[in-house]
Design goal:
The protein is α/β, with parallel strands linked by helices. It has two domains: 204 residues, Alpha-Beta Complex (inorganic pyrophosphatase (n-terminal core)); 130 residues, Diaminopimelate Epimerase, Chain A, domain 1 (Roll), CATH 3.10.310. It has eleven helices and 13 strands. It has a seven-stranded mixed sheet with strand order 11-12-10-9-8-7-13, sandwiched between helices. A six-stranded parallel sheet has the order 3-2-1-4-5-6, with helices on one face. Strand 9 and strand 10 form a beta hairpin. Helix 1 crosses helix 4, helix 2 packs parallel to helix 4 and helix 5 crosses helix 6. It starts with a helix and ends in a 9-residue tail after the last strand. It binds manganese (II) ion.
Length: 362
């Protein structure tokens, strides 16, 4: 019995690697006939897109002797992600400073054309898409598409490419890929599947533990604690739902960070987090309920007003409003809260502020 399971496991890895070999062969074959290559990742990069870009850049350097440019928009503010970019020496270029006409090949990682979370102008052609979010219709027009919605992390797909192509993975790249899987799946507890578990376990021995520590536990600026304070103070509980309005925010990533933090509150199943950043409302949903699909819910909530998407347990979106309009943000909060009442079948509940909730959690 044990032996059979072992065998089946091995075959699964083998068939996955065969698929990754075929996909990466085709991608490399097409890219070989092109010139300068740009790798575009999503706005406000997270560890998954950073590690994926690092891996693809390495693959192109080894197989095609090509130095690809990694371009992003927005900012990296989260201390862990800044530490990752610094410690692992990931070279990044602001998308706004590059002339896209200089590149004959455009690759997109951990995002897809038209999702709203990358800043490539919509009229621009995308050649290669590698992602783990649900496949979008627009993406199917791209030349080489490898979208695996059953993978928890894009970095796992890139890890398989490197493995399938027999490319040596150095310590820093292994650390990046490992940290991407670790952080995005919360150590395989969230949205992780067998390919992610496999990659995580194989990368762990190779990852540099001192660098991993520097990335996981960086010193945090005072701003971080002010944001936590602000989030806790502005959180409202409606039964199993918690809604947090962070008001005007300095860094877009804090919206997801607060959602991850507050979903841990006892008795809470779903968190909606939001903040006003420049002229947009940044939204994040987290849920621990297996009956819900956060990605589908957020798409319905912002339909006609913005763009969004995600997975079963985590999702993000953006809605445009007038810059600095906190009254409009309040309206958005009320509108989306009402929408979530319907989605989650929440009837009449008395709202309670988190800081006023009594210690028994009732
Ligand atoms: Mn990702």
């Amino acid at each position: 019995m044990k032996c059979e399971e072992g065998l089946r496991g091995t075959m699964t890895i083998e068939s996955r690697l065969r698929r990754s070999k075929a996909q990466s062969d085709e991608m490399l074959e097409w890219l070989r006939g092109t010139g300068k290559t740009i790798i575009i990742i999503h706005d406000n990069p997270d560890p998954d897109c950073l590690a994926s870009a690092m891996a693809l850049r390495h693959l192109l350097a080894m197989k095609l002797s090509r130095n690809a440019t990694i371009a992003f928009s927005g900012m990296i503010a989260r201390s862990e992600n800044l530490a990752m970019a610094k410690e692992l020496e990931i070279t990044l270029t602001p998308l706004e400073t590059v002339d896209l006409d200089d590149f004959s090949a455009v690759c997109m990682l951990d995002t897809q054309p038209g999702t709203g979370n990358n800043s490539l102008p919509p009229e621009r052609r995308v050649d290669v898409v590698i992602d783990h979010h649900p496949l979008r219709e627009e993406t199917q027009k791209c030349r080489r598409v490898d979208v695996r919605a059953d993978y928890g992390v894009t970095a796992t797909i890139l890890y398989e490419y490197l493995l399938a192509q027999n490319i040596t993975i150095g310590t820093k790249l292994a650390t990046a890929l490992f940290y991407a899987i670790k952080s995005e799946t919360q150590d395989l507890g969230r949205e992780a599947n067998e390919p992610d578990r496999d990659a995580y376990l194989r990368l762990f021995p190779v990852a540099n533990k001192r660098l991993l520590y520097e990335i996981t536990y960086p010193k945090l600026p005072v701003e971080h604690f002010r944001t936590l304070h602000n989030g806790v103070e502005n959180a409202t509980i409606y039964g199993k739902l918690l809604v947090v309005n962070l008001q005007a925010i300095r860094f877009p990533e804090v919206v997801a960070e607060m959602a991850d933090y507050l979903i841990r509150l006892a008795g809470i199943e779903t968190v909606l987090s939001m903040g006003l950043y420049n002229d947009g409302v940044i939204l994040s949903i987290r849920t621990t309920s297996t009956l819900l699909n956060a990605g589908e819910i957020i798409k319905r909530l912002v339909a006609g007003r913005g763009t969004g998407g995600g997975h079963g347990m985590m999702a993000g979106a953006k809605m445009d409003i007038a810059p600095g309009d906190l009254a409009a943000l309040k309206e958005v909060e009320e509108l989306l809260t009402r929408g979530l009442f319907l989605e989650l079948s929440i009837g009449d509940v008395t709202p309670a502020r988190l800081i006023e909730r009594n210690v028994t959690g009732t």
